[in-house]
Amino acid sequence: VFDVGKDVEVIIQSSNRRRGPPSSPDLKLFQAKVLTPKQTVIKAKLQLRDDGSISVHFTSYIPGRHRLAVQVEGNSLRGSPRTLEIKGEPDYSTGTTLLQKLPTNLLEGILNSLCVRPDSGGNMYVLDEGVIRVFDADFNPLHTIDLLDMTKKPWNFTINSEGRIIVSDTSSHKLFVFNTDGTFLHEIGSEGKGHGELKTPLGVTADSYDNIAVCDAGNYRIQLFNPDTSFKCSFGDEQDGETIFPVSIQFNSQGQIIVAESSLWFSNYRPLPVPPGGFDAANAVECVKIFSRDGQVLQKFGEPGEGRGQFWAPISLAVDHWDHIWVADFTYGSIQVFDEKGNLKGVFASEEKDKGAGWLSTMTAASNGAVLYMSAPL
């Protein structure tokens, strides 16, 4: 039994079942992967020990049974696969390793990324000025996907369970669907106010069944699409007498829809319409709402301000494997985490916090359950 968030070390003999032990094992021939209870894959690190055995290391923030598989040239090693149990609770203190800053020194030239997402195999996809840059789990560059052949101003994207990339475009007022190799597949929606039509779509996400939810920001609403991308339903647009200002969106494990709203962002990000009646700081909408699939508000938390539990332009959301909600603030560069009921669990500030600059922050839950973020002044 191992602890959540701690280094797991497993010793495996380097002998191959068919060929016997090599005289000098070459780690380049070995591969180790861990399948988590969430069916995501963690790439483990390997070290050769003096006695010829192999030390396998990985860290997981997801409790439950993990399956470790080590292979050499496609053949399983003795003692592999192996089942490991990880237990414990996440740590939300200031020095937690649960929140990890992406190594921007390895992501050369990426300063104002609007979105970062992992695939199920642990590769990382980073949106950067119309191009998605793809890195492996160690942040070695793999390839790039040029979106500008099809899109005009890509803002956000998600990757569904089939490995399809769904990109929101604030200028074309559509969603675009690509394979992970960059092959364009089809579009979703067109400019307008009707069912399935979009106006300045911002955040987009997909659940485990590949239903799609998008912040149809210019129409002040949320729209849902079926896995076949046909229109499913919409909600918002003065729901319960209050205009919604959706900016970022995620599903939790229960299929509920988490939405960050910001009338301040609407008043400053010009492709968006000016809030009805103009921006009024005294009545600003800066909050997070949890909706049911049919659009009922289940929970609302947050208010305008710079204190704990308050926001000024919450522009990025992440939902971790505990269904806790991470919120990045544009104005003050802070990241706050709340439980599924909206209770504040922790507050984290950017390392180079500067109240004179807005901060473009993006977050995502990694395959091992950690929350990764990038942050840079605008």
TrEMBL record:
Keywords: Repeat. Gene3D superfamilies: 2.40.10.500, Immunoglobulins (2.60.40.10), TolB, C-terminal domain (2.120.10.30). One of its GO terms (molecular function) is ubiquitin protein ligase activity. InterPro entries: 6-blade_b-propeller_TolB-like (IPR011042), Filamin/ABP280_repeat-like (IPR017868), Ig-like_fold (IPR013783), Ig_E-set (IPR014756), NHL_repeat (IPR001258), TRIM-NHL_E3_ligases (IPR050952). It comes from the Eukaryota. The keyword Repeat applies. GO terms for biological process: proteasome-mediated ubiquitin-dependent protein catabolic process; protein polyubiquitination. This is Uncharacterized protein. It comes from Paramuricea clavata. The lineage of its organism: Eukaryota, Metazoa, Cnidaria, Anthozoa, Octocorallia.
